[in-house]
Specification:
This protein is an alpha/beta fold and 398 residues long. It folds into 2 domains: 6-173, Rossmann fold (3-Layer(aba) Sandwich), CATH 3.40.50; 186-384, Phosphoglycerate kinase, N-terminal domain (Rossmann fold, 3-Layer(aba) Sandwich), CATH 3.40.50.1260. The chain contains 15 helices and 17 strands. The protein has a 6-stranded parallel sheet, with helices on both faces. A 6-stranded parallel sheet has the order 11-10-9-15-16-17, with helices on both faces. β9 (190-194), α8 (203-209) and β10 form a beta-alpha-beta unit.
Length: 398
């Protein structure tokens, strides 16, 4: 797809830039506990401000369902945002109308304002064109820098792009380029790692990927469902036995598409799910009736590493085992470090995303070594499912 970026902006000194950002950050005891999403907006916001634009930030916070709630005001994150940006930010308790107009009048060129939670207005989630026009009346241009909200056709993520000249911010631009390199027009062979607890949450992902990639590596509790569908006794492991039909259909589709599905042939088992219990590493056909499969075994991980060494592109979503608890993090850490090493040497383009994935790669100490790690949850998953993303499609100028 073709989209305008900040490179396409002319002189914006004194222009009013409405910038959709992601400030839906975790909080505890009134304080922001993770500033990752705030740091992601730094390049776009500072570039616009430094070029003399009046920057008006639009964001949602929580799920107020079209009503105002003081505990869901974006003013809750104002202090943390000012600290991250290193700039003073004006808070505006509205998103449209005279209050916003008057506030803009106070701003000097290069100043930044944070408008109230867009979801306080019912028209946000309804993508109300009238609200979009009212918000746009206080802007000269629109920048979307919130890929994580791009799967929502809301006023601030999709509607505004049809009313004002629309541009992708730096974080959005990086995300779209990475996704294009990973599945849009990737260099083959392409491998995908898909893990996590349940097949039911990723049926659409798996059905799409078998038509897109050359190697599909399935781990986590999901692998147990596929093993069981093949007649393997998985003991007391987490397993969706009722999805055997869908698992077999996915494997048949993979065969038809020329995609090789990789399931573990040795696994790490335990009688209980806790830190450092007695464990066994066994062939998948040797799992006892009272055991749980909690990680992929070392022989399978070594074989998977060899698969990655022969690939040029990798998409990763979900851990291979119960990585939160040792020693069931071993497979995820090992394969992640292999992917990181291949990326560093330039033989692999590696793109990863999803909450558990981000945590797993951080745990393995390889986040900085992957080509791109997306912090977007639902949007990243829907992209892997092959679904259109309204907030992205609205930026398309082709």
């Amino acid at each position: 797809m073709a989209f305008r970026t900040l490179d396409d902006l002319g002189d914006i000194k004194g222009k009013r830039a409405l910038v959709r950002v992601d400030l839906n950050v975790p909080m505890a005891d009134g304080r922001v506990t993770d500033e990752t999403r705030m740091r992601a907006l730094l390049p776009t916001v500072l570039e616009l401000a430094d070029k003399g634009a009046k920057v008006l930030l639009l964001a949602h916070f929580g799920r107020p369902k079209g009503a105002k709630h003081s505990e869901m005001s974006v003013s809750m994150v104002l202090d943390a945002l000012q600290e991250v940006l290193g700039r003073e930010i004006m808070f505006v308790p509205e998103i449209a109308g005279d209050v916003v107009t008057q506030s803009i009048g106070i701003l000097a060129d290069g100043d930044i304002a944070l408008l109230e939670n867009t979801r306080f207005w019912p028209g946000e989630e309804k993508n109300d064109p009238e609200l979009a026009r009212a918000v746009a009346a206080n802007g000269d241009l629109y920048v979307n820098d919130a890929f994580s909200a791009a799967h929502r056709a809301h006023m601030s993520t999709e509607g505004l792009a049809h009313v004002l000249p629309a541009y992708a911010g730096r974080a959005m631009e990086a995300e779209l380029k990475a996704l294009q390199a990973a599945l849009g027009s990737p260099e083959h062979p392409v491998a995908a790692v898909v893990g996590g607890a349940k097949v039911s949450t990723k049926l659409d992902v798996l059905n799409n990927l078998v038509t897109q990639v050359d190697h599909l590596i399935i781990g986590g509790g999901m692998a147990n469902t596929f093993l069981a569908a093949r007649g393997v006794n998985v003991g007391k492991s987490l397993c969706e036995h009722d999805l055997a039909g869908q698992a077999n259909a996915i494997m048949d589709a993979a065969d038809s598409a020329g995609c090789t599905i990789h399931l573990p042939y040795d696994v790490v088992t335990a009688l209980e799910f806790r830190a450092n219990p007695p464990i066994r590493t066994v062939n998948v056909h040797e799992v006892a009736a009272d055991e749980m499969i909690l990680d992929v075994g070392p022989a399978a991980v070594e074989a998977l590493a060899d698969v990655l060494k022969n690939c040029r592109t990798l998409v990763w979503n979900g851990p291979l085992g119960a990585f939160e608890i040792e020693p069931f993090d071993a497979a995820t850490v090992s394969l992640a470090r292999t992917a990181a090493a291949l990326t560093r040497e330039g033989s692999l383009v590696s793109v990863a995303g999803g909450g558990d994935t981000v945590a797993a790669l951080a745990h393995a100490g390889v986040t900085e070594d992957f080509t791109f790690v997306s912090t977007a949850g639902g949007a990243f998953l829907e992209w892997m499912e092959g679904k259109p993303l309204p907030g992205v499609d609205a930026l398309n100028i082709a």
